[in-house]
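Action item from last week, closing it out:
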Amino acid sequence: MTETSPTRARMLSLRGFASRWRGLRTAAAVALTCVTLGGCLTGEQFQKGYILPPGALEQIPIGASQDQVLIVMGTPSTVATLNGEVFYYISQRSERPVLFMNQQVVDQRVIAIYFDKNRQVVRLANYGLQDGKIFDFISRTTPTSGQEMSYLAPLFKLLAFH
């Protein structure tokens, strides 16, 4: 039988402790790396422009005054004065799934409120981009060329910050 000296037993014990400590340090480093990189995977959403209050469009009936529209909707993003007055409320929503990546536009909207010469609401429209075409979400129609496209196309180009 071989006898192990107390010094040799202590050395073997220290080697076991050192290898366990090295494994623990490796596991801690892997966990810290995962936690750090996990923070980069949380996506972000960005809202630019006008934020439509819930139920705001339902509070504006056809025939409502321009002052009532201003009270409910607030100041418009832009105003057109061709053939009566039109208030435009412009918004864009984009998201970034991973930090340090480019934003992707998820939704673009232009709410248009048309007034007649007496400053009464004639029509409401909620335009957005659907498959690359301007689309009215209220009447579910796409304007024909030469009507609304000339006003809305530049507005969408201003919002697209590519």
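Closing note: Residues 42-159 form one domain.
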